[in-house]
Structures are given as structure tokens and as C-alpha cells.
Amino acid sequence: MNTLVKIGELSKQLNVSTRTLRYYEEIGLIQSSRIDESKYRHYDSYAISRMNQILLLRRLSFTVKEIQEIYSSQDSERILTILTRKLIGMKSELVEMGNLAQTIEKLIKVLCLSANKSDNIITTLENLYSCERELLENETVELVSSEGFENKRILGDLRIIRLHPMRVAYYIAKSEQPENDAWTVMMKWVKKNSLEDLFTTRYLGFDNPSPSQGNSIYGYEVWTTVTDDIQGNDDIGIKVFKGGLYAVANTKLYDIVQAWQQLYKLIRNSDEYEITDNQFLEEHIVVSEDSWSGNMQVDLYCPIRKL
Predict the structure, then answer these.
(1) Are 254 and 293 in contact, with CB atoms under 8 Å apart?
(2) Which of 100, 170, 262, 281 is geometrically suited to a Cys-Cys bond with 301, CB 3.0 to 4.6 A?
(3) Any idea of the CA torsion for 207, 212, 214, 219, to the nearest 10 degrees?
(4) 146 within some domain
């Protein structure tokens, strides 16, 4: 039998206000019923289950608008895009929080070493502010419009990002399909070290060496970000990437060649930036094991500097 629960009971059960329940009903996320013209709203097991899902999504920082999109969409690709977009945003926020934590650590170290802490703190804060402001100003700005390109859907979300130094595990494979070979070895090592469960883990790669005419064999190097306590083995090396300024755009794995071509062209036509010899990168946005397909979202990182 489908048990009906009054709005007040459900409010206590889920620890949410009756006003919140009424609001979610008004915007169509849940439905209630009234029994024998009762003035009380009653919710069935389906509505209660839906509310639990909504509260989970809210705890995961999804907005009400995003939740509406998820439940109104019948397209699994659209839902995957929404979830991936949220994951990318949360990872960016996490990186920023890490940068802020490093700034506080710098302040603590300077003050601990200072003989006169009360006089030194103002000077220290001024110096830190000057350095951090320069980084933040270059963190994310618009590059140029992608209008005018055919199939411009291939290249989206164009932005400029300053990558901070990161410690990475790396592996290089050389074959006719080195990407698959390299990721197979790396992901086996990642799982062995339980890195796939860490929210901060990122997956990047690039041609090394690049394909050459008349030669079907080329190389692909893959990176996985790691903490200081992680060590490599005979196959997997560890190194520190220095970071730098990058033009970044997202695409799908099956569109990656055309997307790179468009990104190159955009930067070459820019009056503000030029391409540098820093490392080109492809970041694979991994949501689950099923993400490793041609439909995977990939962020392209092109190294640049201001003219």
C-alpha cells in the first residue's frame, strides 16, 4: 500500500521547512495530493523519493534551476553535460581553495620567522596581496569570440586560465594508438593507488613525440595529478609541471582534431595573445569508467602569453 505522509510529517522527516516543500511543488519538482477535500497536502512514496534525490543534489551544490533541467530533460547526453559542467566547476573551486590555503601558509611562515610580528604583518600582507592579485587577474578572462567558424559547437567555453604548478605521475606509450595504450597502463596504476576516488585527481595528456608524415608510430604521454606522498614505480614516473598561462576550450573527444585547429586559428588571429613553447595539454574530464569513449569531454590547453 502506498503510504501518504502529511506535509508537516514530511517536513520533520527530511528536516526541511514546509515552505520549501510548497516551493518545490509550485515549480513542478514534486507533487502532492489532498484526501477528501482535506486542507493538508499529502505526499506518496514517489514524491518522498524525489525529495530525497533533490536534497542530495542540493547537498552536491546543484542550483534549483540545474535540478529542474535534470528532471525535465529526457536526453541522457544533456544530463551528462549538466553533471560534467558541475564537476568542472567544483574542481576549479577546489583548486582555488588550495591556492588560497597556500597563501595563508606563506603568511604563517613569514610571521613565524619574523622577529617583530606586529610590525611585519602589514608589510607581509601588502606583498602577498600584490603577488596574489596578479595571479587572480590572469585566472579567467575572455579571449576572443568563436563566431564565424563553421561547426562552432565543436569549440566551446573559451577562456584563459593560469595553471599553477602541479605534481604529476606520468607514462609514455609509443604505438599506432598510443593514447589507449598509455591510459590503460596509467589507469591500472591509478586504481592500484586508489587515486580515482580522490576528488582532486586530474587526467591530462599530449602527443610525445607527435605524429610524423609517413610514420604510423607516435607517442602519447599521460599525466595524473598526485600528492607529495605518492611515489611512482618502474613504469610510472613522478615530476612537477611548472604551470603557465593557457587558452582553454572544451570539446568532445571525437572532435578533438578540428577543435585544436579552431583553437590555433583563434589565437593566431588574436591581437592580445600568442602561442608559446610551453606544454600543450588535453585534460580528460572523467566522470566514471563509462566516460572513456569518443563522447568524453576534453579540455584543450594551448600555452599563450600576452603580446
Answers:
(1) no
(2) 281
(3) -30
(4) no
Domain extent for 100? 76-137
For the chain, the 3-state helix, strand and coil shares in percent, each to the nearest 5, are 45, 25, 30
Based on the domain organization, do 168 and 268 belong to the same domain?
A: yes
Q: 227 and 157, same structural domain?
A: yes
In a domain, 115, yes or no: yes
**The pLDDT of residue 136:** 46
pTM, two decimals, is 0.55
Number of domains in the chain: 3
Of 171, 173, 224, the residue nearest 195 (C-alpha): 224
Name the residue with higher pLDDT: 105 or 156: 105
User: Any residues with CB less than 8 A from the CB of 303 and at least 6 apart, and which?
Assistant: 244, 245, 246, 275, 276, 277, 278, 279, 280
Show the cell assigned to 209: 613525440
Residue 144 within any structural domain of the chain? no
